[in-house]
């Protein structure tokens, strides 16, 4: 198949990890006879430096035309003045909003080789396999903001339609998995959460009667996520709660460097990015963990291009690389050898070529 993929490397380690993911996608294309064209554009701090804007019009136009978008990370100390007129993060928020990417899928499935990298006890991590569906274009992130001399406010607002559509994505995903959906809110305090709970209850009752729905308050969810992570299948929540809970959930996997994400809207096109940030402290050294970006590329193959076998092959290859002990510094146990970005990427590409993988692709 032919596909146009827009690559937005962004800042810090973004260019290093997106380069790794593109290499893996090229290997997939070569092996399976696909033609992927990559178009690189600026976003975030790099775009501010080049054009003065965090999301230049040319980037957004290219993104609108693309079959899928692969993004690295945005932000860094150079642009971190909170009072600056433009900030790198605005580019990310603006592209999510402009493309209507309201459902952000963040799967968490700890790999046996990285259990030691997690601060959570290994016996609690065995069998953990959950997906957080984070609402991505509404809530407090996008409500009116105001700053006065001695006060400030951020409005949190959700419409019924905004809640319905993201709950439908999450419930559909739960139906295809283990049939369990946990909706997270703060309905004991927030009006938006009471609306969220009402809508989630109705949508699941009327449209997904086969899905088991449970409600959790966000504070207790933060606790349960660590205390009994195996109990969860699909978790759906509003924008800011999802942002916070997924950084927490990344510790189940052992590192932020392992978690991919897919941001989806109503069409096939989507934006794929690791959930980690730009890690300016290690940028440019070739040691960043590329697995989250590579796993994001696997999600791209699955959700935007419909290449399910290829997506699975990439996921198997990452798993194989981890099994083989190709651990970057963030996931290696102290004293154990570590690999750099390049070696981790090559390990994935090598594993893609294994005969057993080819067999699986014929399914
Ligand atoms: C994320 C990030 C972003 C967010 C920032 C960089 C704006 O933390 O994707 O989780 O808060 O959504
Ligand atoms: Mn975040």
Account of the protein in words:
This protein is 43% helix and 17% strand. It contains 13 helices and 12 strands. It has helices at 14-32, 45-51, 57-65, 88-98, 122-125, 160-176, 191-207, 218-227, 239-253, 291-303, 308-323, 341-352, 355-361, and strands at 2-10, 35-40, 68-73, 103-108, 130-135, 145-147, 152-154, 180-185, 212-217, 234-237, 262-264, 270-272. The chain has a 10-stranded mixed β-sheet with strand order 2-1-3-12-11-4-5-10-8-9, with helices on both faces. A hairpin with a 5-residue loop joins strand 11 (262-264) and strand 12. Helix 10 packs antiparallel against helix 11. The two termini are 18 Å apart. The relative contact order is 0.16. The model has no long low-confidence stretch (mean pLDDT 96). Manganese (II) ion is lined by residues 243, 247.
Keywords:
single chain, 363 residues, alpha/beta, Isopropylmalate Dehydrogenase, 2 domains, two-stranded antiparallel sheet, 12 strands, 43% helix, 17% strand, globular, binds 3-isopropylmalic acid, binds manganese (II) ion
Number of helical stretches of at least 4 residues? 13
The CATH architecture designation of the largest domain is 3-Layer(aba) Sandwich
Distance between the termini: 18 Å
> What proportion strand?
15-25%
Radius of gyration: 20 Å
Strand order of the largest sheet: 2-1-3-12-11-4-5-10-8-9
Share of helical residues: 40-55%
Might you state the CATH topology name of the largest domain? Isopropylmalate Dehydrogenase
> What is the number of independent domains?
2
């Amino acid at each position: 198949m032919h596909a146009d993929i827009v690559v937005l490397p962004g800042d810090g380690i973004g260019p290093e990890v997106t380069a790794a993911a593109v290499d893996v996608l090229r290997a997939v294309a070569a092996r399976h006879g696909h033609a992927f064209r990559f178009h690189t554009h600026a976003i975030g701090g790099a775009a501010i430096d080049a054009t003065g804007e965090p999301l230049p019009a040319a980037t957004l136009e290219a993104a609108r035309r693309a079959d899928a978008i692969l993004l690295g990370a945005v932000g860094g100390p150079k642009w971190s003045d909170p009072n600056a007129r433009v900030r790198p993060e605005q580019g990310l928020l603006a592209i999510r909003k402009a493309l209507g990417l309201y459902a952000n899928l963040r799967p968490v499935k700890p790999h046996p080789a990285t259990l030691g990298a997690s601060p959570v006890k290994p016996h609690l991590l065995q069998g953990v396999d959950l997906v957080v569906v984070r609402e991505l274009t509404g809530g407090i992130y996008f409500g009116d903001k105001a700053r006065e001399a001695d006060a400030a406010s951020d409005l949190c607002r959700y419409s019924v339609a905004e809640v319905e559509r993201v709950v439908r994505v999450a419930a559909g995903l739960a139906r295809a998995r283990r049939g369990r959906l946990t909706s997270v809110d703060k309905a004991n305090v927030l009006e938006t959460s009471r609306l969220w709970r009402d809508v989630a209850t109705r949508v699941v009752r009327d449209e997904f009667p086969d899905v088991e729905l449970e409600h959790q308050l966000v504070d207790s969810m933060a606790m349960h996520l660590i205390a009994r992570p195996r109990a969860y299948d699909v978790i759906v929540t509003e924008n800011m709660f999802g942002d916070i809970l997924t950084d927490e959930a990344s510790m189940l996997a052992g590192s932020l460097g392992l978690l991919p994400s897919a941001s989806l809207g109503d069409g096939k096109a989507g934006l794929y990015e690791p959930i980690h940030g730009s890690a300016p402290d290690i940028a440019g050294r070739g040691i960043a963990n590329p697995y989250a970006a590579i796993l994001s590329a696997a999600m791209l193959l699955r959700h935007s291009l419909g290449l399910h076998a290829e997506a699975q092959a990439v996921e198997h290859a990452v798993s194989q690389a981890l099994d083989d002990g190709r651990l970057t510094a963030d996931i290696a146990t102290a004293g154990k050898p570590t690999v750099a970005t390049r070696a981790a990427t090559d390990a994935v590409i090598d594993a893609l070529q294994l005969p057993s993988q080819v067999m699986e692709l014929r399914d």
